[in-house]
Amino acid sequence: MPWRSRISLIMSDSAARILEELVQNRGFCSGEELSGALGISRSAVWKHISQLRRDGYGIEAVKGKGYRLQVSPGYPDALETGRFLHTSTLGCRIEHHRSVMSTNAQARKLAREGAPEGLVVTADAQTGGRGRMQRVWHSPPGVNLYFSIVLRPPVPPRVVPQIPLLAAAALHTALASVAGGVDLRIKWPNDILAGGRKLCGVLCEMESEADMTHVVIVGIGVNVNLRDLPPEIEGLATSLLLEAGYEFSRPELLALILNDFEPLYRRWLEVRDLSPVLGYLEEHSWLRGKQVEVDQYGRRLKGVAAGISPTGELLLDMPDGSQTMVSSGETHLIPDNERT
């Protein structure tokens, strides 16, 4: 099935148009008005209204007046997010799922079917969400942002590992704009921390040939309004709500992230390195100047994080006075009692 027709399986075109009419009208819309605008029967209008209610939309029905939208569940879908979006490409098409195994898997499937650059797949919940190193990403419904962006950058595969840091800069900018009192830090290569605990992460997956990139899927998870954390990650993760003390709009936050990411991505396509955001990444770095250990799948390096190179490597000052460039790995701060 072509990817375009798959969007209508998430919410029917008629239901989406009814919802749009109710959002734009802000008052009552009669069944007759909706029926005429959509070219469907009044009984069909009622059927779609009932489905929207089951999906969480609070729609009031008053005899002689019609229907009025009272409560929106705040899904990060096209209708809700589009009110805040100012991009030319990213997010112009949004496919939203109430639940999906993983937004990355769904985005990759749609990309293989021909989805264009800028398609965003969002989900209210994930049943198989994961982060780097195959770690499980805690993905409960209704509280967080889980989304994946389809990119088709005309660049060689060797520069694609810079994209997570671009995304991290956009994430930090967007989150700081709505939660200015929270101390947000960028942890190389792809995390945002608050108070030393993980707030969001980026997982990029690529399909390419030796000298040609076909598609990059940028998967992002943000803990937004999460109140309760599983015991095993309670000391490692956090959320915007836990840090700031109040709730945030998920669709508005998604739009802010896309609004900030698009110009960074366009500039990166021109220069093909991180020079436009390097100063920002350094300013808000969690690791810079600290003693760290980098785990490279069994090989461990210890040194002082000295910064990030324009091509995205972590610069590590080694105990022998030399400096090495680390292109991948999992970084950890070395506890005070283990430092040399």
Q: What would you say the CATH architecture of the largest domain is?
A: 2-Layer Sandwich
Q: How many domain regions?
A: 3
Helix vs. strand class:
alpha+beta
Biggest sheet: strand arrangement = 3-4-5-9-8-7-6
CATH class of the largest domain: Alpha Beta
Report mean pLDDT, rounded to a whole number: 89
Number of beta-strand segments:
14
How much strand? Answer: 15-25%
Radius of gyration: 22 Å
* Number of H- or I-type helical stretches: 10
CATH superfamily of the largest domain: Bira Bifunctional Protein, Domain 2
Classify the fold: give the CATH topology of the largest domain. Answer: BirA Bifunctional Protein, domain 2
Query: Into which percent range does the helicity of residues fall?
Result: 25-40%
Low-confidence stretches: 1-9
> How is the main sheet built?
7 strands, mixed
N/C terminus separation = 59 Å
Q: How would you portray this structure in words?
A:
The protein is an alpha+beta fold. The protein folds into three domains: 3-71, Orthogonal Bundle (Arc Repressor Mutant, subunit A), CATH 1.10.10; 78-283, Bira Bifunctional Protein, Domain 2 (BirA Bifunctional Protein, domain 2); 291-338, SH3 type barrels, CATH 2.30.30.100. It is 31% helix and 25% strand. The protein is built from ten helices and 14 strands. The protein has helices spanning 3-10, 13-25, 31-38, 42-54, 78-82, 103-112, 163-178, 240-244, 250-271, 278-283; strands at 58-62, 66-71, 94-97, 120-123, 145-151, 184-187, 191-194, 197-208, 213-222, 291-296, 299-308, 314-317, 323-326, 330-333. The strands form three sheets. The chain has a seven-stranded mixed beta sheet, with helices on both faces. Helix 7 runs antiparallel to helix 9. It is elongated, with a radius of gyration of 22 Å. It starts with a helix and ends in a 7-residue tail after the last strand.
